[in-house]
Amino acid sequence: MVMDTLHRRRLYLYLAASFAAGILTAIGFREILSFPRSSRSHVHVATDRAAPKSHRSSEGEEDDGEEEGRPDIKEGIEGCIGDTPLLRIKSLSDATGCEILAKAEFLNGAGGSTKDRVALNIINTAERQGLLTPHSGDTIYEGTVGSTGISLAAICRARGYLAHICMPSDQSTEKSDLLLKLGAEVERVLPAPIADRNQFVNLARLRASEHTLDPARPGVGFFADQFENHANWLAHYHGTGPEIYRQTGGRRLDAFVAGAGTGGTISGVALFLKPRLPALRVVLADPAGSGLYNRIRFGVMFDPVERDGTRRRHQVDSLVEGIGINRVTANLEAGRHLIDDAVRVSDAQAMAMARWLAEKDGIFLGPAHTVITVLCDSGTRHLSKFWAAAAAVPPPVDLAAILDPPA
């Protein structure tokens, strides 16, 4: 049956976004686990730098820094952040006739997620502005559902700071356990809307202020403020975006698909790539209960489940942690005008797609497109919640049933 152009486009975007939503939490299938780490360069993001420079040899060839006799040694764990591989997932690409590419952000070497870039740039920017001093007793406070806190905790240890992390109590226990092992102070608080002063982000801001005002405590309290701090999207504008452009040779890309929590990744990548690749479609994949789908589609923050009073949680109505939000952030707004479309992805679809990707390495897309998404972090930090639920989902045998379920 031949589909009309509009239906084909909407199906393509829907499939692509479903792929992203599933793969964000399904890290670990064979091709990814076996992919070697690339050499990395230190990501020190300056606001006046448009893109990292390639190293060139005297003959004009790109220099990979590994020729005989030249050491290739990184400076601490910070040197293992950035320049992550862009994977061509062979089985999916061959089966669909598409180029399905994935930015392996879980190979960042500090906290093992895309938030390593953000945490490092927040700290670097604060140091340049004189707001943080290593080994002075300064403590970095942040409200996070996990990954940013893990990245901050690891980099704080390496850079001579303490970390205090406030997080909702309904997040997977693996995250708080890891934070504690990294030496961070962890405050788990009841989930609450942003208007509540005890909401996890607001509490982190309060704790930073209390620290600074306490004369008995050494150093100052610094609120990282990942949702509003422009160092977030700038890390992706100066790092992730240029890397994708360089790794694909500046060729045509059809779509970049990502979820959004703070909005820094999708905004920063879009701001870099769109001026260079005007035909690129940037698509937001949003879970139930999040207002970002309506923000992109209709310019308002509203979700029907708020009206119905059926939400399971205070933040978003989804098992997929760290994605979706019900307020406008400075990081999302920085690049919102470049986001072309948004689609809903349900928990059932995300879990079924995660099982499919993990067990079969297969997905269906319209042929002859190049789609890029982001592999944010490892599935090991989602075992007790998302994967506990996904394990009960029968392995899918029909992708059409996943992507276009019966009403």
UniProtKB/TrEMBL annotation:
Q: What is this protein called?
A: cysteine synthase
Which ranges are annotated Basic and acidic residues under compositional bias? Answer: 45-59
- Family per similarity comment: Belongs to the cysteine synthase/cystathionine beta-synthase family.
Uppermost EC category? transferase
Which stretches are transmembrane? Answer: 12-29
Metal-binding in keyword set: no
Q: Which InterPro entries match?
A: Cys_Synth/Cystath_Beta-Synth, TrpB-like_PALP, TrpB-like_PALP_sf
Q: Which reaction is this enzyme known to catalyze? A: O-acetyl-L-serine + hydrogen sulfide = L-cysteine + acetate
For this UniProt record, the keywords arranged alphabetically read as follows:
Amino-acid biosynthesis, Cysteine biosynthesis, Membrane, Pyridoxal phosphate, Transferase, Transmembrane, Transmembrane helix
Q: Does the keyword Amino-acid biosynthesis apply?
A: yes
Q: A single GO molecular function, which one? A: cysteine synthase activity
Tell me the organism: Trichoglossum hirsutum
Q: Looking at the record, which segments are called Disordered?
A: 43-75
> What cofactor is needed?
pyridoxal 5'-phosphate
Q: Supply the Pfam families for this chain.
A: PALP
Cite the Tryptophan synthase beta chain-like PALP domain residue spans from the record: 78-370
EC number(s) given by UniProt: 2.5.1.47
